[in-house]
Design a protein that fits this description.
The chain is an alpha/beta fold. It has 13 helices and nine strands. The protein has helices at about 20-40, 55-60, 70-80, 105-115, 125-145, 165-185, 200-210, 230-245, 265-275, 315, 330-340, 350-355, 375-410; strands spanning about 155-160, 190-195, 215-220, 250-255, 280-285, 310-315, 325-330, 415, 425-429. Strand 2 (about 190-195), helix 7 (about 200-210) and strand 3 form a beta-alpha-beta unit. This is Tyrosine decarboxylase.
């Protein structure tokens, strides 16, 4: 591998066109072949990387090469030095966390998105990017049988973010500003955020970023008797205690398919309890939301009509490559009021379409300004496989887990810790 050797070597180099079409074609074929071979052989690698911390610095030069190196050499180094340091999430032998469920359609959609390299922060910056996202989010919402109030075809709408962490932070910010506009921003120290002790750590991180006092974060204890779901009674008790202490309940994150054990919080009674106090309810269905396109699993999100927002990660169990978090809002205005900037103050953001208020400017639905054309890969997945096949893929995964659960339950060396809801089995020796 090359490294920087002198300050004058550049005098002997020639300019390279970084987007030469024929060179893209040649190198692109090589990389596709490389990745196809990787997938063909991925199960032969040890799933967990066997390297020691700092291994790569010992293998690579101390500085970047001054002159170009051929793709053949680079790919050889990827194979020899990078692949050994990868934990192989796509391996059929991978059983940690939730596997990243890539697919040909998801991969090719990612290639298209990367190839167009769209920065679709508002409608005018690429109308197709915004409008395809509007359409795909309504398609997916209809597959989940979401209430009309969550769809663009109703008064709501959907957005594709990177991860659940972003979805929770954005909705928490919207909830925070909505209430502070009523009670005064000086009262932010009184706001309280609720989840269970099974809720993803993203909620606590979002609360920290959003300025919620650390003492006002509630991780309510769950028990085995409720299959580790958050119960309405325990939520009510926490709310009552906080109100008595002069605090203001703000936000509840209910989970459908928790990270540790895929527990399911009962949405309808939790939403009913929260709404008595004006609490914003966000439903995190990051993993399990995918399964709810199947009629037999839709009941897990019964009561969603009482929530304010919902998100699930298509990159967890929906054959879409990372990253692709789908989020729906009943009241997008609450989100845009919190996250938008005054476009009139920034000339580069002004245009007739935005001024007309007839288009969606997704920059106001997320943390960052810039955004990728993620809708392309989700669109390719939906079209390439179709709803019927996607349901059958999901069912096959659940059926495999069901069979495995039966085998574990029939072996007295093991115990199934909690009932299986989806395609994950929790057991111990």
């Amino acid at each position: 591998m090359g490294s920087l050797k002198s300050d004058v070597e550049h005098e002997n180099t020639s300019m390279i066109n970084p987007m030469d079409s024929e060179e893209l074609r040649r190198q692109g074929h090589m990389i596709i072949d490389f990745i196809a071979d990787y997938y063909k052989n991925v199960e032969k690698y040890p799933v967990l990387s066997q390297v020691e911390p700092g291994y790569l610095r010992k293998r690579l030069p101390e500085s970047a090469p001054n002159n170009p190196e051929p793709i053949e050499t680079i790919l050889q180094d990827v194979q020899e030095h990078v692949v050994p340091g990868i934990t192989h999430w796509q391996s059929p032998n991978y059983f940690a966390y939730f596997p990243s469920s890539g697919s040909i359609a998801g991969f090719l959609g990612e290639m298209l998105s990367t190839g167009f390299n769209v920065v679709g922060f508002n409608w005018i910056s690429s109308p197709a990017a915004t409008e395809l996202e509007n359409i795909v989010m309504d398609w997916l919402g209809e597959m989940l049988k979401l209430p009309k109030s969550f769809l663009f075809s109703g008064n709501g709408g959907g957005v594709i973010l990177g991860t659940t962490c972003e979805a929770i932070l954005c909705t928490l910010a919207a909830a925070r500003d909505q209430i502070l506009n009523k009670i005064g921003r000086e009262n932010i120290s009184k706001l309280v955020v609720y989840g269970s002790d099974q809720t993803h750590s993203a909620l606590q991180k979002a609360a920290q970023i959003a300025g919620i006092h650390p003492k006002n974060f509630r991780a309510i204890k769950t028990t085995k008797s409720s299959s580790f779901a958050l119960t309405p009674d325990s939520l009510q008790a926490a709310i009552s205690s906080d109100i008595e202490a002069g605090l203001i309940p703000l936000f509840l994150c209910a989970t459908v398919g928790t990270t540790s054990i895929t527990a399911v919080d009962p949405l309808e009674p939790l939403c009913n309890a929260a709404k008595r106090y004006g609490i914003w309810v966000h439903v995190d269905a990051a993993y399990a939301g995918s399964a709810c396109i199947c009629p037999e699993f839709r009941h897990f999100i019964d009561g969603i009509e009482g929530a304010d927002s919902l998100s699930f990660n298509a990159h967890k169990w929906f054959f879409t490559n990372l990253d692709c978090c789908c989020m729906w809002m009943k009241n997008p205005t609450a989100l845009t009021n919190s996250l938008s900037t005054n476009s009139e103050s920034y000339e580069f953001l002004r245009n007739k379409a935005s001024d007309s208020k007839q288009v969606v400017d997704y920059k106001d639905w997320q943390i960052t300004l810039s955004r990728r054309f993620r809708a392309l890969k989700l669109w390719l997945v939906l079209r390439s496989y179709g709803v019927a096949n996607l349901r059958n893929y999901l069912r096959s995964h659940v059926n495999m887990a069901k069979q495995f659960e039966q085998l574990v339950a029939g072996d007295n060396r093991f115990e199934v810790v909690v009932p299986r809801n989806f395609a994950m089995v929790c057991f111990r020796k």
